[in-house]
Specification:
It contains eleven helices and 58 strands. With about 800 residues, it is an alpha/beta fold.
Length: about 800
Amino acid sequence: MKRQSDNILKADDLDDTDLSGDSDLKALQDKSVLAINDAISRATGNKNIELSDLEAEALAISRQMSELENTKLHGILAGANITDENKRNQILANIKSSGQNRDFAEMKKLVKNFIDQENREKSGTAVISTPAATKSEQGVSKDAAFTITFSEDKMQALLAVNPPLGSGKPIALQTITAWCTAKKITGIKTDEIEKSLREMARSKKPVIGKIIAEGKPAEDGKNLEIKFEKEFTDAAAAGFSSQIAGQVCMVKDGDLLISASEPTKGKEGANIFGENIAPKPGSGEITAGDHIMTQKRGNNRLYYSRLTGLAQLDKNTLDVILYQDASFLITVSDDAMKAILSLNPGAGLGKKLVFEDIMQAIAEKKIICNVNENLIRNKTEEANNTSDPLQIDFIFAEGLQPEEGKDGEIEFFVKVKASGQHSEKHDGRIDYRQRENLVKVQKDDKIFSVIPPLPGSKNGQDIYGKIISMREVKSKELNIGKNIRTETDSDSGVLTGYAELEGSIKYDEKTGFIEVARIHEIDAINLQSGNIDFSGDIIVKNNIDDEMIVKLTGDLQVKGNIGSAMITADGNIICEGGIVTKHRGIIICRGNLSAKFIENSIIKCTGDVKVSKAILNSRVISQKAVIAEGEKGIIIGGEIKALNLIRAKSAGSSAGIKTTLQAGYDYISADKLALITEKRLQMEKRLQSTDELIQKLFKMKPSVDQFTEQMKNVYKESLLVQMKLKKKLLEIKMIETKLTAEIEKPVKAEIIIEDKLFNDTLIIIGNVKHTVSNTEDHVKYIRAEGSDRIEKKFLN
């Protein structure tokens, strides 16, 4: 019989037992099974019964069987050579649990399974088997079985599956995974198990060697890796003395010499049972010696020189030693007017500087002008005796600059060109509508002086002795235009210009043209130009955009349109387009105003207001006349007020748009009255507060004698304020009375409608009102002399 190692249970011979004999042999076997079952029952009930008792019972019955079958039965029980009592008990319990009605073949199979299981667990292999095949009319049936084997390093689990025979049961995926989980196997590849089961089911053949679990191997650490950032050479091969060994390189302070990736620890792994696998750490190091600075950057360590000298790497130690020859360098400025000597002191065993060598180099460069030999000698000695390695730089020769003359120049005493910069608001924000766009001057302002050129006196030479000629001086001139008065100084020849009137400066830097203009032309008034504040006349070639501010002392001519701007002009306003302020802007004109049309706007004008087409939904006030003339000449909606005359082709609308025409209205006096009235109301409010304060004092103390010192002071101040307010109020009321009389004073005023005056138009002359009840043609309204009624006349 084939033997296995002593620590492995023997079960190989069980497979050789043939149970296919005649019926007599089968009967004996059945009897043997009954005896064994009875023995097992007694053995499990009596712990003192040994496995040998079980064996004796079986052998007694086996004597009635053939000699061959007797040997096979002995192989099952005695051939196993089980000496461990625990294992005996496990076999007995296993046989008992199989049931007493099983045949001999089944019991033999149970014994074999137990022995195989013990063998596999000892050798790293697990075997799961089904009960022994049973005979039927269709043949032998056998359940599917699987075997899981572990690699020696426990990094892999390999699956082998045997297909079922006959009507045997298949293996479920959960059976295998549950067994793996029970064994604490990690990283189970369920998909591989499924593939193996599908492959077995498809081929009806065993599938073996399928990896169903793998551990993660440890990653060993990396050793030190060195990268030379400078070109190192072997010291002996380069001819250095025996005192210097290893790899060497001449370096400067701050040079990066070596970058080395430091050894790493590696990463732990784990086998299929989750047990950690330690990595092998990397090794190697560089020791930073003298004058070496290291810096950690990521996983790298950088080694820098902290000295200009010789770097050497010997036996994993890196250092820098003093080793530098002294040197010098002569440089000349681009204009050849300065020569600079740079001395680099030697270090360690390096060579020293030699004065004669330096002077020879200067002579070879043919530098001859103002060479300072004493300075060169002293600096050379200083460099040779210093322990400081820093370079010494100094000028040792300089050329002679020519004594140049001076070009003529123009000195401006005012700005001649607007900066165009935006101004800031009070809160620090940029005001994009306010920018410097004009340069304004007053009469007699000093604008400029033209200074004549001054010739030079002496030529120069460079450090090579080459003559440098004086340059020719240049004069500056201005092309002086209108409104500038000039005066010339007889001694210096300086020409000075003064403004002859108030205006803006126009200056062309290219042509030198300069003048003071009373009229200023501008393309447009918008964010690019900024707001305008100018003393004089302005011509705007295009439009005035919304929300712009324009202030000027002269006339304003706009060739485009005027948007919702704030405009104040002391002179006339001429708008060749239309005015549409959208009731957000206002136009104040102290001269006459003319436009093509006025729409949704507010206008106050000291002189006449004339439009060639229409006034629509606007508030127009004139101290003289408002005239809508031309082909249309209509006034629709809004409020029109004039002191003397309102004239239009038609007024009002058949649609009933509210339109008010008021003549005999002195808006200047009315505005003054409104301001003075507001001031009076404020002062009356202050007087009332003062009176209440005095009353409060007397409520606290009934007489002045009982007042405290503080109360007396308050009382005196209040009386003084009260007296001043009453006096001022009296003056204001007199002004109010005068202005009211001025407003109510009868003046010659008329409203003329040359075509249609539509019904519901309100006519006001002075304080007398009249609403037009029916549409009228060719009418004129005036105030009847000596009465408060309005008189209507028809035009011829």
